[in-house]
């Protein structure tokens, strides 16, 4: 539990969601937050929301540990909420198996809920979205709207009354599966355009039977259920996505339990998915901080070259490097480029440093970074004496360097600097010394080179 109190767990306080990056404040925001605080008393409320369509594996243990652990560390509560919106994939054995694993890991849900508990409310809100012009019934097929750049729906601007009648028809079973969907008029954070809110499924639901033949999607349901249950921190882990920790070939929790792994070992594994980094590498006795370490890390572009050159000691397709402080060595498996030929991703293998020959170099990296604005300053004038007419005939104003300020708007830095105050100073290794700018805001940290 101590790890959950570390740097990685410094989230916003309850009721201060609006101060987080990217939060959209509306005219009703502060009123709703006040009502929320009155109802919850400022209590931390989290949830573990699995889809009951399979056996939990080691990847799910991280999400369980993250949500239940954070709530416990802050004297809060955590819900176990089943995301049961896909009736054709869900079975009762998965419901009982999920709860069994949660309890085996030592956690007791404050309450066990289901997305299906809120089907009527979710439907009513969908109708309200249509009335307000924020949703519409669409006849495009699934294959037509896949990806992040599908063509705009020709039905996006259909009359509100028409969408209301069609949505009611969907509810009454007047259309075939896949024939129509209800889509929201918005662009998701990941770039997805007009995500589907409701689709038709003629499969009896394990709890509601044949009451419904339309079911809400994850994109639509998840945030609304969080709102209904007054969740204060929607904690979602990304380390276990497909082709990663979420690979179905990984160990299931039931198998690990059967093989004798204690629950404490699983919880410790999840809580310790970070590395300790000294605050002052030259004098480690002066303290350290935890840095998040996952399967996705970012490195400097200059630390990779496609061709090994004489004297270049960093990462190339045939030359591994070490990750500084992490104790791991990475080797290139695949180089991925965008259509223009620019390298955008490196797929690598990872091995403990003590199991490999020592690499020629260790490079800096960051995982789950904090995005901030960085200002790099160089000399203001091109000449040593800009006011000297013999050096600068055009006067000192003509001698200002166009490169005296370089602005990096989306720099990635270690999250341990998130709580820094104005004028606090840091050394970014191999780059220089930086200080927190007075222009920084709650939503955007700015640092300038000193």
UniProtKB/TrEMBL annotation:
Coiled-coil region list: none
A GO CC term attached to the entry: aminoacyl-tRNA synthetase multienzyme complex
Domain Glutamyl/glutaminyl-tRNA synthetase class Ib anti-codon binding: 266-349
Source taxon at top rank: Eukaryota
EC top class, as a word: ligase
InterPro entries: aa-tRNA-synth_I_CS (IPR001412), Gln-tRNA-synth_Ib_RNA-bd_2 (IPR007638), Gln/Glu-tRNA_Ligase (IPR050132), Glu/Gln-tRNA-synth (IPR000924), Glu/Gln-tRNA-synth_Ib_cat-dom (IPR020058), Glu/Gln-tRNA-synth_Ib_codon-bd (IPR020059), Rbsml_bL25/Gln-tRNA_synth_N (IPR020056), Ribosomal_bL25/Gln-tRNA_synth (IPR011035)
UniProt cross-references to Gene3D superfamilies, sorted A to Z: HUPs, Ribosomal Protein L25, Chain P
Domain Glutamyl/glutaminyl-tRNA synthetase class Ib catalytic, chain residue ranges per copy: 43-243
UniProt keyword Methyltransferase, yes or no: no
Keyword line: Aminoacyl-tRNA synthetase, ATP-binding, Ligase, Nucleotide-binding, Protein biosynthesis
Biological process according to GO: glutaminyl-tRNA aminoacylation
MF terms in GO: ATP binding; glutamine-tRNA ligase activity
Occurrences of domain tRNA synthetases class I (E and Q) anti-codon binding (ranges): 362-437
Tagged with keyword Protein biosynthesis: yes
Family note: Belongs to the class-I aminoacyl-tRNA synthetase family.
Protein name according to UniProt: glutamine--tRNA ligase
Protein source organism: Acipenser ruthenus (Sterlet sturgeon)
